[in-house]
Specification:
3 helices, 0% strand
Length: 116
């Protein structure tokens, strides 16, 4: 019989895989997919706790549906931002996206130095 521990181990492994992907990959699409894997790991844990701790109440399933809705919204907003960044910068590599950096050439004026 599959117990609560098996579901929690599966959830932990999926969360660790997602965390590794979100922290180490440079491609923005892979980072978004890793975040989705982490959210699905949380869903598995929620439903497993709901099933084995309080089998009558459906709180885990309700939270899982809420997380799925939030994940869908996150994916759509994330992809919209990604498309906008790609149109402006022609890249989706996370280490090359620096939207706050000023791309204008230097005007030749030096900035005043602050003295102590």
């Amino acid at each position: 019989m599959i117990g609560l521990q098996n579901f929690l181990v599966l959830s932990s492994v999926l969360f660790a895989i997602g965390l590794y992907g979100a922290l180490t990959k440079r491609n923005t699409i892979v980072v978004l997919m890793s975040i989705e894997i982490m959210l699905n790991a949380v869903n598995i844990a929620m439903v497993a706790f709901s099933r084995y701790v309080t089998p009558v109440a459906l709180t885990g399933q309700v939270f899982a549906i809420f997380i799925i809705v939030v994940a869908a919204a996150e994916a759509s907003v994330g992809l919209a931002i990604l498309i906008s960044v790609y149109r402006n910068r022609r890249t989706i590599q996370t280490d090359r996206i620096d939207l706050l950096k000023d791309d204008r050439p230097e005007t030749g004026k030096e900035t005043p130095k602050v003295s102590d």
